[in-house]
Each structure stands twice: as C-alpha cells, then as structure tokens.
Design a protein that fits this description.
The chain has 12 helices and 16 strands. It is α/β, with parallel strands linked by helices. It is globular, with a radius of gyration of 25 Å.
Length: about 475
C-alpha cells in the first residue's frame, strides 16, 4: 500500500527574462503539495537549496513515514524559453518523476512512476497536517521513568509509566506489530501505544512500552530476527517488571504480530497473568497474508480476473517460501514471480529495472517473512489458561476479523480456557480507528488515534481480572 517514490524529476518553468540567480531564488526553498493518486492523494514536502555551487534537497512523504530522503542529480537548464530543473531521490530504484511548470508560486504537472501517471502540484503554502487530539500532553498525573534492560547482548530501552498512588499495581507490557517501530508504535503521525499507556496509567495500571530491537534506543539482534526472537525480548521485559516491588502482576498487550508474540510468551511463562490480543493472528501466517491481500484487492476494486491472477501468484510465492530450500536455491523462482507481479500491476517489462526485482526478492526472502508464513498460533493458544481479551475491528483488512478472531475463540474454547472475552467491533480498522474503508491510506488522514471505546474495554477488563 505504500508508494515508493524513488527518483523524482521536477520541471520548473520560468519567464525567459529571469536571471540564473533569480532562478535559484525561485527554485530554492520549501515546497509542499500533492500527488493526485485516485482515492488517496499523497502529500509531499520538498526542500531545495544550493551550497558551494551545487544543488541539494530532501523530500518527505508523511503518509509513508518517509522523512529526509536525499535528492541528488540536479540539472538546471536556463537556455530554454522557460528554465527547467531535474533531480532524483538518491539510491532508490523505480525512477518516479515530476514534470511540471513553475507558474508564479506554484509548480503543476505530471508525476510518473513506472507506467503510472498522476497529476501533481506544489506551492509555497504549507498544508496543515491532520491533528492528533488524543496525543497525551503534560502535565501528567503519574510518574514517568526511562528504563533499560537486556535480552542477552540486546539492550532494550523503554518508558515506564506508574500511577502516583501507593501500589502495588497491575502492569502491562505493550508489544508492537510487524516492522521495526518505536516505543509509541508511531505510524502516520499517530502514537497509539503512547495513547494507551497514558489512558491505562491514569486508571491505576503500570505500562511499559519499549523501542523494538534495532530502533530508537534499543540495540539490534546480531542476526535478522523472527517472531520467535521478539518473543525472547518480551520475556526479558516480563522479568524486568517482575523485579519491581511496585508491581503486583504482569500482563501483555500485543497488537497484530505483537498478539502472536504475546501468545507465545503466555504459553510458556507463568509470570504472565493475562493477555490482550489486538488484531492478533489466529491462523497460519500464509493464510492470514492471503486473506489480507484478498481484502485489499476487493477494497481497491480489482476486477475478478486480476484478483484471481494476483492471488495465484501469491499462493505460488508462499508455497516456495514455506519450503526448506535455501535462499540461494529459491532466489531464481522468487525473481520470476516478482517480474510477473510487476507485469500484472500494469508495469511494462521495459520499465522494471533489476534493482526493483532484487528489492522485491530481498523482502520476500527475509528470515522474518519465511518464519511468519509457516507460523501457526494455535499450538500456543492451546496452552494458555489465563484470562484472554481479544479484539478485532470489522473493517480490518490486514488481520481479517472473521478469519482470525473466530479461530482464536475456537482454539481457546476447545482447549478449555474458561476466561475468554471476545469483541468484534463495527466500523474500526486495523489500528482500531473509526474508519470508512479500513484501507491503509485512511490511517494518516483519520484524526482519531484509537477508538475511546477500545481504550475503555481494555481498561475495564484489565481491572476486572486483576482486582
């Protein structure tokens, strides 16, 4: 769902009488605007400057979490009737380009990436980003402590928020979803874990949120980690909380992949007394990802023929990646599928360079992906006999509610767990925001970080199972 804007050319149009220094004044500085992608316009910010005779610049794409991407390969031509300028994003394949004209204080034209073309416009006017009204602001009626602990050689850094009252208190460790994220699980300007931590701590619950290994102030694992490795990080966090005399009991709140991690840890660690699963996997990873793509294709209006062909390619890819063969042996097969995927998406083979293929292959052969495709949460859920709260948004296109929360409920019921609470929440997406389509492109434009209803459900349930 992210549009990787890799190489960008901008054609700026001036009046012929403008001198080079005037051109520099007109080109340099800050620009903001939009690429008009249908149903999901993409805001961008561009900064240009000239230093020691050479142009430099950066581009930000807030909706994709991309900031400060370097711009290089500037070319200014003042000999034409209207001066032009071109530049690219350094080191990123794909060759997306801007081609426009400067008209007073705006630049308008065509943006192209591979075989796709969209209108764009830039101006000096700064757009106002969506507000985040739920983001906590001081003063805070609780204590905030910066903490660190270790999982082997991995140093984990986080924030502990504690009520001011006398303890001991119930405590929760928050577990992020897939991809490296900071302790607030920051995404598209939202800080859902910060909002959760603030809300729960005000209610008398200690909260620990931690930077993922290799992100923020936490150090990386010595090799590419999988879900299993992240589970050991969480166990180190549980041990850290258990040593604190201000804490009475420890629970876990896991979002998305974090819910799978919570299930792993709870199945084998007696120090975990309850878990909250937010949009957690309930089926094998390959089944989850196939359904995820099917939901996205439907929401994007894919025609049946294209949808069937796309899912067939995914099935082939998942079968290959789930085998025991080495990456080296699988590389040629995955490369073929990557080329077919680009072609199916309407990108002519001449527009696909080798770097685009290799980037896709590298992502597919990532150890995390190969592990997750075969990961089955059921054996872990079967061993859990502590209280479980599981929530899913009905509009979640990433972790389908019907597929996953139903599987979680069925597995826990069959294993004899008598303390299970399930909520299927209408109108909420994967981040538990009130949404319209559930697609990823909505996340950034929705002002709500997390539904107040969800916050209350979590708070009330934790207090009910810990008091």
């Amino acid at each position: 769902m992210k549009y990787n804007i890799h190489i960008i050319f901008i054609l700026l149009v001036f009046f012929p009488s403008i001198s080079l220094s005037q051109v520099e004044n007109h080109v340099g500085g800050h620009w903001e605007g939009t690429i008009e992608i249908p149903n999901q316009p993409l805001n961008i910010k561009i900064g240009l400057s000239k230093k020691d005779g050479s142009w430099t610049g950066t581009i930000d794409i807030p909706a994709q979490g991309a900031t400060g991407l370097s711009l290089t390969d500037f070319h200014i031509d003042e000999t034409k009737e209207m001066p032009t300028i071109k530049f690219s994003i350094n080191g990123v394949p794909g060759n997306p380009t801007f081609d426009g004209q400067l008209q007073e204080q705006t630049i308008k034209g065509k943006f192209t990436q591979a075989s796709f073309t969209f209108d764009f416009h830039l101006s000096r006017k700064k757009f106002t980003p969506p507000s985040r009204p739920q983001e906590p602001k001081p003063p805070f009626p609780y204590n905030i402590e910066e903490v660190e602990y270790k999982n082997g050689i991995v140093n984990l850094a986080g924030t502990l928020t504690l009520p001011n009252d006398d303890g001991p208190f119930p405590a929760v460790l928050l577990i992020t979803g897939s991809g490296l994220q900071d302790r607030d699980e920051t995404i598209f300007g939202h800080k859902p874990f910060w909002v959760i931590a603030d809300y729960l701590t005000r209610a008398g619950i200690v909260v620990l949120r931690v930077d993922d290994p290799g992100f923020g102030k936490s150090t990386p694992h010595p090799k590419s980690p999988t879900t299993a490795d992240f589970a050991t990080d969480v166990e180190a966090g549980v041990a850290f909380l258990k040593k604190d005399e201000r804490i009475a009991s420890v629970g876990l709140i896991g979002h998305s992949e974090g819910g799978a991690i919570a299930s792993i840890v709870a199945s084998r660690n007696d120090d975990v007394k309850f878990i909250v699963l937010l949009a957690a996997p309930g089926v094998v990873g390959s089944e989850l990802l196939r359904k995820q793509n099917e939901r996205i294709f439907d929401a994007m209006g894919f025609e049946d023929e294209r949808k069937i062909a796309s899912l067939s390619l995914l099935d082939n890819l998942f079968t290959i990646l789930s085998s025991d063969e080495s990456d080296e042996k699988l590389h040629p097969q995955v490369s073929i599928i990557a080329r077919k995927q680009f072609e199916l998406n309407g990108i002519h083979p001449d527009k696909v360079d080798e770097s685009m293929i290799q980037a896709s292959v590298k992502q597919a052969l990532n150890p995390w992906m190969r592990y997750f495709l075969t990961f089955n949460p059921k054996p872990y859920l079967q061993k859990i006999n502590i209280p479980v709260l599981a929530l899913n948004g009905e509009l979640d296109v990433q972790v389908d509610t019907e597929q996953n929360i139903n599987a979680i409920a069925k597995t826990l019921e069959q294993s004899g767990n008598q303390n299970v609470t399930i909520h299927r929440l209408q109108g909420l997406n994967h981040l538990f925001q009130t949404a319209k389509t559930g697609l990823v492109d909505e996340y950034a434009v929705i002002e709500e970080t997390i539904s107040p209803e969800v916050l209350k459900i979590i708070k009330d349930w934790i207090l009910s199972v810990t008091q």
